[in-house]
Write a structure and sequence with these properties.
five-stranded mixed sheet, single chain, 9% helix, four-stranded antiparallel sheet, 11 strands, 317 residues, mainly beta
């Protein structure tokens, strides 16, 4: 239940983004499910994902856009590294996240080269770079050395879509913080390029969030290290951002690695149907309110904390 991953740090550069959408029930999200969890994810993946896309389209599946773009929230940082493994040693239930980016305006064709960026809190509700923000309830301190805790960059990263529009992340199941339900932030970028280990340029089309089934989340939160964070967990029905639309609102399809042992981890899947011509930065706009109205006590405002990490890290794929 512990990630075996190396510490890395990044510079806080400005990066831009691309839009999100999912496929309606009976469409890509269903047809592409098995291929989405193939063990290999490289730029030379087999045609399985493409075939699933074609099959879904042929059977009447229609691409639909995600819920309206929401603000990126108070915990965004520029310049995340392009890397598949984003854990940086953070402990938690393993989560393999497989996302497929397709063009909803062009027959659900894969969007090769789209950059998907995600960021989320750790098992106790802390975000890297903002560890002085109280996650609500009762949780251990993020670090015994508070002077350097904000230099970490855990649970943030980009992946570039392969020829089948697929990206894959290795991370942990997110924890929670008041007043939000369990979620992952996501941006999809197009038109930029990988540079100095991060992603530069391009257009921001959509800023959204990915969500988790309450039953699975609550089962995970009973395990260590999540159980050390006590308090009132916000369910999907009470969340200020999730609008009840299922996959079209960012609800992930989850598959247990071992049905009888949730600590072994989960695989999460969603198809993001984008409009490459649309643009929404998620900065200060959107009906969803970003992190949902009032952020946790101690949530940061303005510029990120001082002591930004240096460019000494080597990005991993």
């Amino acid at each position: 239940m512990t990630g075996n991953h190396k510490d890395t740090s990044i510079t806080r550069r400005r990066a831009l983004v691309v839009t999100g959408g999912t496929v309606a029930a009976g469409g890509l999200a269903v047809a592409g499910y098995q291929s989405a969890f193939a063990d290999t994810t490289t730029d030379t993946d087999t045609a399985t994902d493409t075939e699933a896309t074609a099959d879904a389209t042929a059977t009447g599946g229609a691409c639909t856009t995600l819920m309206s773009s929401v603000t990126e929230g108070p915990y965004y940082l520029d310049g995340a590294l392009v890397r598949k493994d984003i854990t940086e040693g953070k402990s938690g239930v393993p989560l393999t996240l497989r996302l497929t980016v397709v063009d909803a305006t062009d027959g659900c064709t894969p969007v090769k080269g789209a950059a998907v960026e995600i960021w989320h809190c750790d098992a106790w509700g802390y975000y890297s770079g903002y560890t002085t923000a109280n996650p609500g309830g009762s949780a251990p301190a993020e670090s015994e050395d508070g002077s350097t805790a904000d230099d970490s960059t855990y649970l943030r990263g980009y992946q570039i879509a392969n020829a089948n529009g697929v990206v894959k992340f290795e991370t942990i199941f997110p924890g929670w913080y008041t007043p939000r339900t369990c979620h992952i932030h996501v941006k999809v970028h197009t038109g930029g390029e990988k540079e100095d280990g991060t992603y530069e340029g391009g257009k921001v089309n959509h800023t959204g969030q990915l969500f988790f089934d309450d039953t699975i989340a609550e089962e995970i939160f009973a395990l260590e290290p999540y159980a050390k964070h006590s308090g009132s967990y916000t369910t999907l029905d009470d969340d200020m951002v999730y609008d009840g639309g299922g996959a079209s609102s960012g609800l992930l399809t989850l598959k247990a690695v071992h049905k009888k042992d949730p600590s072994k981890g989960y695989k999460g899947f969603l198809t993001l149907g984008i409009d490459p011509d649309a643009e929404n930065t998620g900065a200060g706009s959107g009906s969803g309110g970003g992190d949902g109205g009032t952020p946790p006590s101690g949530a940061p405002t303005g510029a990120p904390p001082s002591g930004a990490p240096t460019d000494s890290a080597t990005a991993s794929s």
